[in-house]
User: Fold this.
Amino acid sequence: MNVRSILLAAVPPAARSLASPAARRPRKVAVFGGTGYVGSAVCERLVKRGHEVTAVSRRGANPRPDSKELSQVTWVQGDATDMTTVEDVLEDSNAAVHCIGLLFDVDSGFANLNKIVSGSGSVPGEISTYDAITRKTAYNVIEAIEKKQSLHSGDVESDGDKRFPLAFLSAAEAGWPEVPLGGLVDGMAPKWLNRYLTAKRAVESRIGLSSQSKGSIRASIYRPSLIWDWTKYDILPAIPAFNAAAAVGVPFVDKTVRIETLADAIVAGIENGDVEGVQRVGEMEKLQDRIR
Assistant:
């Protein structure tokens, strides 16, 4: 155990947030998709950690007005497929989270099921394809950050890192080609799922390209499997099957992730300069421990 760990262990749990990096170095974080299931949880935790949060969504309204933390968020109604909107939001931000997405797009044939499976209960509009909602909005965020960083290349964070922290919410299935038998399963997936994963992988590739060629973004990519809490009645029955398959080593099935774990991991990725690249469930659990 290092000296820092010993000192933190001596701090009462209730006071640890005051000793955390966030308490000393708050950020201005833009959360795209802030009214959604994951986005609102991330906003809530960011506020608890002392960050200033601006959340962007089509509705632009606090999804839980009774939440003390969410009441401190600046809610912005906007369309992230519009570059001007994205640039305006990022102008005064020094970190960003992209968790815009939908399970069933307008072309999937199952769009109305989003009322059940979506944490926000939203239904996609006529132009709400995976390509527009996931790829285009994420590309806009990445390009706006690159532009912002090119104009402020001399700015350095207190930890010496010039890069802009970005968290992107991907999916465990986006990594199927990287695991045994994953390519076979990927090829058997229905067309709507292939298009969903194509959009996620395109963003992951774009992030990788930016990191390699420009070096202006420190990106962490989160690949959760099923995300849940005890109110998600639609997926609770599937959780034991997923967890059992992961436990016996089925390579293309990851253990499910509680919403609290994912949200905490995303916040840890924003706060800690050594967090970047793909984060699967094991990494998420370790990241959660870093901000408890």
